[in-house]
Amino acid sequence: MFFLQATNSTNVTYVVYFGTFGMLLLAIGLIVFIVFHQRKVIYFQLRMKKMQEEQQQMMLQASIQSQEEERQRIAADLHDDAGPLLATVRLYLNENLIHQDQGTQLQSIYNAKQIIDDTIQLIRNMSHSLIPPTLKNFGLESAVNDMFQKINGSGSISASARFHDYKRRLKLEYELSIFRVLQELVNNTIKHSHSSFIHLTQNKTDQYIYIRMHHDGEGLTQTEYEKLRDTPQGMGLKNIYSRVKILNSKILFEKDPSNTYYKVTIEIPIEAML
Amino acid sequence: MEFLETIARLSLLLPCFLFFLRKRSQSRENWVVFLFVLFSILQQAAFIIGAKTEHPEVVKLISFFNPLTYLIFIYFFFQQVLVGPINKKVTLVCTITYAILQFIPFLFETTSTITSIFTTVNTVFILLFCLLYFFEQIRFPKTMFIYTQSSFWAIVGFLVFTAGTFFIFWYNNIIKQSEVFENQYIIIHALIFIIRNLLFSIAFVIKPDKQPLTDSHLSLT
User: Fold this and answer.
1) N or C: less crowded end of chain A, CB within 10 Å?
2) Quick one: CA dihedral B62, B68, B71, B76, positive or negative?
3) Among residues of chain B, what percentage have pLDDT more than 70?
4) Does residue B218 belong to the interface with chain A, where contact is any CB pair within 8 Å?
5) Using the beta-carbon criterion (under 8 Å), do B167 and A27 form an inter-chain contact?
6) Pick from A6, A16, A27: which is nearest to B184 by CB?
7) What pLDDT is stored for residue A6 in this prediction?
8) Are A20 and B166 within 8 A, CB to CB?
9) Does the CB of A51 have a partner CB in chain B at under 8 Å?
10) How many helices (H) and strands (E) does chain B have?
């Protein structure tokens, strides 16, 4: 207040000089601060943008790699299984041309038929691994139950699923994406967790479907998931992340408060999926 | 003192000269600044004529309209520079409020306190406008280096002039009573006036950085 109330001559001189100097100093300080702070803000924004681009690049690479792996697997199946079977059929049919007697011909045709049946079964299995027929015909609930039945059949781990409210099916492409995420989660649990059981539940609210999977083995927390996802090794987790992102959903990895179970919850918005 | 005053008055010619030198590439906000400089020239001419012909009422009239005209120029300048619609509205409301306040002395007897209040309000408004501009520059940066924009230098000019002349305008009435004070006033005012005109000159000659922000800018920081 002294600066605004000075009246005698010494005070006024003092106030005018120091006040002006102070105001100029403040103005210059403000300008310098803005110049440097603005650069910091831009630097931060550019870094964020770059990181997002890098992450997208990694996701794209993961998606391409998983596609390539899938192609390689199909190629290997065709080359190693279907190829030799069809070559054998060809041999039997060639034999038919050489041996003219009816008995030998019938035997070769029978053998060729058997091999063709095997080949059909093989191709069916390959086709099923690309899109499970249960999923296509009966929906996610049946496909999950079917998958868990097969896991139970192996005897190494107990798997169970309970769908509380899944009367109306989602679009097939979304169901397939959810199924692939669940497949990856189950595979990871079987491979890494050393758990004795897997239990999956499905619940629904007006807006979301919640699929929760828990097991009693070693699992991941959200921080660990995010950390592993960004490493070049975490291919499966990257696929989970990209599928969840396509579904416009959320995934949460957490440890049960009792420290006994690990839980994975997927929150799927219903509106866009029907 | 007279020499310094003359230099300060002549310094107004530098931005005008530089403006005409690069007239074709001048932005709209630079045109507002140029008109403001022209107004300052007319004002200084009126002061000289008023002092020589001993018609103090001319100087009084100019002094009265000075803050209002200054704020109107500032308003038009910030309307060109600001991006956010809310910020534009804030500047409009502030200018209208101030313009209405400006007519209060017509209704009541003008005292030094009222004059001081107007000076403070004027300064606060201009500082607020400058802060709005800086706030926008941080929120929606257009370029890596803010000082490659001509508007930045014009705003620095306004800011330095407002901040530097705040106290001499605040004590205007006391200063006018004594020759010693008046000399102080002339020194400070002339120096800040010259600095302001130099900053406007920079605004008129600076070439804007039109390159969009890219990752290549990361290596520059």
Assistant:
1) N
2) negative
3) 78
4) yes
5) no
6) A16
7) 56
8) yes
9) no
10) 10, 0
C-alpha span between A272 and A207 (Å, rounded): 10
Detail the DSSP E strand segments found in chain A: 158-163, 197-204, 208-215, 250-255, 262-269
User: Is residue A193 within 8 Å of residue A219, measured between CB atoms?
Assistant: yes
Per-chain mean pLDDT for chain A:
85
Beta bridge partners of A198: A159, A215
B215 DSSP 8-state letter:
G
Q: Whole-angstrom Cα distance, residue B84 to residue B139?
A: 10
Query: Could you tell me the two tokens for A18?
Result: 């120091």
Give A88's contacts (C-beta < 8 A, 6+ positions apart).
A115
Q: Give the number of other Cβ atoms within 10 Å of residue A220's Cβ.
A: 21
**CA separation for the pair B134, A24 (Å, rounded):** 17
Provide the token pair at A263: 């839980």
Name residue A229's amino acid: R
CB contact under 8 A, A49 and B215: yes
B111-144 pLDDT, tens digit per residue, is 556 666 676 777 778 888 888 888 888 887 777 7
As a residue count, chain B comes to 221
Output the DSSP codes for B61-111: HHHHHHHHHHHHHHHHHHHHH---HHHHHHHHHHHHHHHHHHTHHHHS---
Decide if pLDDT at A10 tops 50.
yes
Edge-first strand listing for the sheet containing A262-269: A158-163, A197-204, A208-215, A262-269, A250-255
The distance between the two most distant Cα atoms of chain B, rounded to a whole number of Å, is 63
Name the nearest CA neighbour of A27 among B97, B158, B220, B75: B158
Do the beta carbons of residue B142 and residue B132 sit within 8 Å?
A: no
Q: Is A42 an 8 Å CB contact of chain B?
A: yes
Question: Is A6 in the B-facing interface, judged by CB distances under 8 Å?
Answer: yes
Amino acid in the structure at residue A226: E
